[in-house]
Amino acid sequence: MIPQRMIDEVRQGTDIVDVVSDYVKLNPSGRHYKALSPFTQEKTPSFIVSPDKQIFKCFSSGKGGNVFSFVMEMEKVTFPEAVELLAKRAGIDVSKYRQEGARKDEQRQDSRFDTLRWAARFFHGNLESDAGKRAYAYLAGSRGLEAGTIRRFGLGFAPESWDHLLHASTRDNIPVEHLTELGLLTRHHQRNTLYDTLRNRVIFPIFTIGGQVAGFGGRTLSDDPETPKYINSPESATFEKSKLLYGMHAAKDEIRRQEAAILVEGYMDVIALHQAGITNAVASCGTALTRYQAKILKRYTSRVLFLYDGDNAGKKSMLAGIDILLSEGLTPWVLLLPGGEDPDSFIRNRGKEAFFKEMQDNRTPFLDFQLRCFRDAGMMDAPDQASKAVSAMTRSISLVPDPVQKELYLDELSRQLGISRKTLLKVMPSADSGRPSGPPPREEEKKAAAPAPPPNRPLSVSERTFLEALLESTFYGNEVLAFAASHEQMLSLSNHAAQAVLRHLVDRFRELDPKAGHGIDITAEITSISMPEARDLALDILFRLPVQEQAPLLPDQTMQHARRCLSHFLIAVKTLVLEPLQQEKQTVLAQLAGTTEKADEKKLFMRLHELNSKIRSMDQEVTGSINAILEREA
């Protein structure tokens, strides 16, 4: 857990305008800055940054928050990772906040990445030297790569030598144990000597999403059929193939902009597509697609175009990958290139314009691809095999989390197969079939375990006014929050998001150390609200609140602002508390006007009397509390 003192230091040492400017071009607009949204494609700027409040709001996507949430959204990292990134950017030494063991572990990890970065530079230097002429000719001639592309992806060369890397590491004081641990050096157990693992190979550095070298892939230049064509770094603390996507560091921004990713098989496919201007392409690192890789893609997009080889192995991998993508909430599409070509060879042979046209004209939904594969395999010709194929397709549909999409896919499958939806539903696994089995709970147990929540009503004017006063008051102290915490029982908001905002702020107020003498950081607290609708509501209100003048307020001015906020809040509280009773009173009056039954009329008059008494009592109680607070503050 990150200490609060560390978070505060990083926040205070960071300006959101400077950070956001690293990602988008900001233009002044009054007291704010505006830009085109980095989250959506738009022509009119709707992304606004407030330097006064150190928050941002994107009105096209609804996203907003402080500098931490912005970095989390852009880099798709966790909160601790965002704090670390911003600390490094601001030159803040955060090691003082860590325990000794954690500091040593991080230093070891950083040292490993330093070694990998050194190795990547070493291999790239080899490629550009005389020793790398053959490898460079292979990349530039046979593969058609431009010099800029080779540099952009940091491609390199490992000479056909047993100790070239070993000697260089000795010269540059690189720890041999790191090179061995990372698989760049291999120990000969019989001779107890070390030798270079990668020899006579074109080297492909594999980067993390953040752009650090995590490992390497090597493509042999040997014609020996016994030599493996590709080898990767072994699994290590920095390199886990199942958790990496090749090219993701270079593709993530374009994937986010296009709201789609292209998933290919090999390193050269990714590089060829990027060189052709198709920069949203990534590849799994020599492995079948994993759930972890699908989760990475989900951070940036909801649509993935499979573009594997069209041979049996490629089709089999895509069929398996479709279910993995669906289970993570992604929508898969498939493109099979003609003539058995892969993206690299297609672009070299036919050009990028033909490739663009192929993508636009011939990509197919995953259901069409599945059906085509089953038909090509002859599985739709016999009832027993067709039944297996249909079961497989309905299983895929069952993984779709969106109920509307699931219905549409089921309708489409029914139309294509000529099988009724009723029959398809019988063979389709249930959405919760993976849950632990057991006897169904009795109806009484269900009701006791999950009481029905109160109905969610639209945000009323009084509730919004209440939240505006509550949020603005936090800039001037804790008086309003203290009142809200002590009168929480009477402050029941019918809008769930509004209630979540109130609940979160009251809880955080109660956690404050009264001896510390400081209030809560409202922008930080809002961005930590777990309910997205509540977080967006609070950010929208905060963004629209008036800001203080840039000149520091004098003590009496601060007091005036605080009293104004307190007055507005207490008036909002009174309206909020009395409003439901007044509404019920109007309902009873309307019922009285429409009834002719004496018995009903008597009951309604009794209820009206009760409501009037309750309104008077509540009004006196709230007014008394308000007057007491105002007198204390006078």
Shape: globular
State the major sheet.
6 strands, mixed
Number of discrete helical segments? 27
Distance between the termini: 42 Å
Please identify the oligomeric state: single chain
Briefly note the CATH topology name of the largest domain. Answer: Dna Topoisomerase Vi A Subunit, Chain: A, domain 2
The tally of strands reads: 17
Query: Could you list the spans in which at least 5 consecutive residues all have pLDDT below 50?
Result: 100-107, 432-450, 548-555
Q: Compute the gyration radius: what is it?
A: 32 Å
How are the strands of the largest sheet arranged? 12-14-13-15-16-17
User: What percent of the residues sit in helical stretches (DSSP H or I)?
Assistant: 40-55%
Give the name of the CATH architecture of the largest domain: 3-Layer(aba) Sandwich
Structural class: alpha+beta
The average pLDDT is 84
Sheet-strand content, in percent, reads 5-15%
CATH class of the largest domain: Alpha Beta
How many separate domains make up the residues?
A: 4
